[in-house]
Amino acid sequence: MITHFQFKPLFKQANLPGWQISFYFNGTHYDGLYHKTGQIEWGTTAPPKEEENSIHSKIHELMLFHVYD
């Protein structure tokens, strides 16, 4: 389960896409960049390969709800 999800724009101009994201998943902190294409560039810690697709899908849903709504 994803908890403490946060995002903020990379640029002061809101019309330029790109966001910093951070969250916890199973007690581990993750951060990265969410690009307008939906691609996630992981920061210091990348999720395990077997969980990456699931996490990516959940993050995409959260971003659609919060940013593109």
From TrEMBL:
It comes from the Bacteria. Pfam families: DUF5342. This is YheE family protein. It comes from Metabacillus herbersteinensis.
